[in-house]
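hey can u check if this looks right to u? its 172 residues, i copy pasted from the old doc so theres a chance i mangled smth
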Amino acid sequence: MDSSASQRAFLLLRYTLIAATAYLLMVEDQFALPPVGIVVVIALALASNVIIAQLPQRVTQHTSFGIALVLGDTIWITALLLESGRFNAEFFYLYFFVLLLAAIGENLRLIAIGAVAICGAYLYGLAATGGSWSLWKSPSLIRIPFLFTAAAFYGFLVERTRSATRTPNGSR
């Protein structure tokens, strides 16, 4: 994949992650308007993607940029999820397990397959232990695309960083 196509894919995946986070927070709160602080953070994340699109590729392709972005995105997403008060420890374990899978995955295809397996196991666990939980009526169902999107975005960054460090002209 050439660098401009890689940059477009990166930006689209990040927009998808930001939108999935916003949608997750809204659905979990039954489509109530989130608090102003959460709206501001989502707006800043969207604005940062616009700014990133304007940066030279030598900056965005650099390994330290990817590391900073992974840390920054993980922090603001985790903070918003915690602030909402809608997610239990099990969901956070699952979320960080998906991030770990993305970090140690061999390639994006295997990461996606692993994310599907994890999401399937999560759905099975909800159905098996949820009592009156229903697949078609649960707002928790939106957690699945969120987790998959997080795996895809972070997996893409890991794969892009690995391929950049393997090539002789890749930025380190």
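Helices lie at 3-28, 36-54, 57-60, 63-84, 89-104, 108-129, 143-166.
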